[in-house]
Amino acid sequence: xGLAKIKEALAGLAVTDEIExxxxxxxxxxxxxxxxxxxVEVKEKVEQNMLFTPxxxxxxYHLDVKVTPQDVxxxxxILIAQEFFLESITGVDWMKDGQIEVVYxxxxxxxxCRVVIRTRTDRTNPEVPTISDIYSGANWHERxxxxxxxxxxxxxxxxxxxxxxxxxxxxxLLKDFKA
Amino acid sequence: xxxxVIDKSLETFVLNLGPQHPATHGVLRVKLTxxxxxxxxxxxxxxxxxxxxxxxxxxRTWAQFMPNTGRLDYLAALSYNHGYAMAAERAExxxxxxxxxxxxxxxxxxxxxxxxxxxFGAFVLDLGGFTPLxxxxxxxxxxxxxxxxxxxxxxxxxxxxxxxxxxxxxxNFITGTREFIKRLRSRxxxxxxxxxxxxxxxxxxxxxGPISQEMCRRYGATxxxxxxxxxxxxxxxxxxxxxxxxxxxxxxxYTEGDSMARYMVRMDExxxxxxxxxxxxxxxxxxxxxxxxxxxxxxxxxxxxxxxxEAARGSFGIRLVSDGTNTPYRLKLRSPTFSNxxxxxxxxxxxxxxxxxxxxxxxxxxxxxxxx
Amino acid sequence: MAPLDQVxxxxxxxxxxxxxxxxxxCAIEMMAAGASRFDLARFGAEVFRPSPRQCDVMIVAxxxxxxxEPAVKTLYDQMPEPKWVIAMGNCAISGGPFVxxxxxxxxxxxxxxxxxxxxxxxxxxxxxxxIEGILELEEKITGSRRWPRVQCG
Amino acid sequence: MDQRSTTDLLYxxxxxxxxxxxxxxxxxxxxxxxxxxxxxxxQKTKQLIECGITPIGDAWIRYGVIYYLYAxxxxxxxxxxxxxxxxxxxxNKVTGLGIGDFVEVVLFVGILSLALVYAWNxxxxxxxxxxxxxx
Lengths: 179, 372, 153, 135
What we know:
CATH architecture of chain A: 2-Layer Sandwich
CATH superfamily of chain B: Cytochrome-c3 Hydrogenase, chain B
Number of domains of chain B: 1
Largest sheet of chain A: 5 strands, mixed
Largest sheet of chain B: 3 strands, antiparallel
CATH class of chain A: Alpha Beta
Number of domains of chain A: 1
Shape of chain B: globular
Radius of gyration of chain A: 21 Å
CATH topology of chain A: Beta Polymerase, domain 2
CATH topology of chain B: Cytochrome-c3 Hydrogenase, chain B
Distance between the termini of chain A: 48 Å
Number of helices of chain A: 4
Structural class of chain B: alpha+beta
Oligomer: heterotetramer
Strand content of chain A: 25-35%
């Protein structure tokens, strides 16, 4: 199945992050007379390899890999070698943790295998290397993401505004954008 | 776009196939650098009808965004309703009753036929023939009457709800649809005799605007553009959703990859959609059209969800990022014609201007869907 | 009106050539109005001219974005006198469903920069509404209404 | 100038004036009946039409020679038809022998169509797709 092949091909690029996991410690067994104690919730930092295979029925994709911005190009090369095509590039502005997330969707023609590649760059000046020389379709997707979020794709042939007027210098989809 | 390096000694002039042009079916502007009748470099300029649906998604609740999906690609708006409704249902885990699924598929396929009929009329109009437009619109009006009797709208539908559809179909819709299919089946041979076998059309479309599979993969083209280049990729079969597995229909695929192939794919797709509608009507189960416990206020769990449907122009995808509140955190609309048009610049390199317009006609563009 | 003016007005009113100027969804309803069932030809308005030099009426059908506004102005100026403007659909009247607090892209209404004669509400308005709009324009030009007015209710 | 030639001259003059009238008439009527006021906003009436966008650069450049050949071929056959009009008027009247006139017309058109055959061989009518990328 395409999924297994691509999974171990991308395994090397997956980033390990610290994510907070809420653990509930069951209350200790009550000593004879007192009432039983309440379970206690504790937040903990856990090392987590950011390569998931979520269930397709709920999420809509099979493989979700988080990579560093530099590894996006290598991931794209692996994917085009295995005949994936680029469906779309999405930008998400996580203002609370000061990051902009760029999500790449890939899919296969023959078998159904939707792969999602994620990167996070810091919000003040977001930088992601371009993949428009590998996937020519990414040229427009990246220009649009630059329009809406201000992510500069290094190496992109011409990052002028695509959907906004030529002299636009604002980025409308940022959460703190005021018209 | 492959950075084509043009030698400077060539005398070229810039022609604007501008925002107001009959062949661009909307407000697309293509900046053409021309050498006489030949196109040296074509650069589509977008944004003339950019209305920012995605930001509207971020300050509207989940249900309030449904009318927007009808105004993205208003020729096949029901598949956009379907995509958005399914994405939210998957995220929330709502079960859609059987009858509602059948009604959804029937109305989406009827809408696809209407969209292809309008494309057929407008495309032959681009090539110079005026009368097929009037015939195609006549048929299309029949479908719009049927869909209007059920949904209330002619073009910008807002018919689906999370968990079903809001209005059940009645008997004269069913008899009307059967009559319409009989009538359209009797008229399709006339369209084929008058237009498809017309030597002028064949001369204008045969081997014009070849698009290779490799180019489709690099640009992410989907839908009839891809199926015209020999790839059997149709989201209804590739990623079966709703009740499409119950219908037996096949996907027309042509391998030549020229404008004639893309034209024939859409003409055959009308026949397949009619088969689906007929089977849908025969197997229509009884029962409710709205899920019993569809939540009024939708609050899907945190995380992001992707859902793709086969719209008339390609695979329309929606990426929802929800943070658990009742308004989406981010809502990305993956529009098929955005990717289909991105290969226009490379596909029409060095072509004659009229041939490039024939190629653009076969890409079947709807500009508000590209600009969103 | 002087008799010659009346003759001129009658001639102009019954040969309003609209410009193919579809912006968005309303353009499809405009095409449907021009096509076989709703047939604008009955009112002399079925000739949709692509070039502004040969049309009398600019039907603004759809949303006008800020990027498109200079182009609309140029097209309006390039039309010869006498010319009229019909704002078709809510977007052309007031920005329609796309007015929300953070909207940076659209011009809210064609009358912000064009002298609009007839407003046709609807999203999109039905082809009959466009025909009623053209009849309304004819009444505005000639001063009298030749076609029966639909009494609803 | 005997009586007949003056009437002929009168016919030609009347025909000429009629033509002139048809040519100049609409301009006069247009200036008389055009509305005085204008509702323009940005005074771009005189600008060239390019789908609403101000034209970029200039189109008065040197074009390929193929378009000149195309125009020449049209001109040749246009003038050819011009000569056939009087022939059609005087057909069969002068020599009374139908065949002679017919052969002359066929000969005349035949020599001219040699130009067409030459152009066809030179490939004027094939509009092949070009590749502008430098190798």
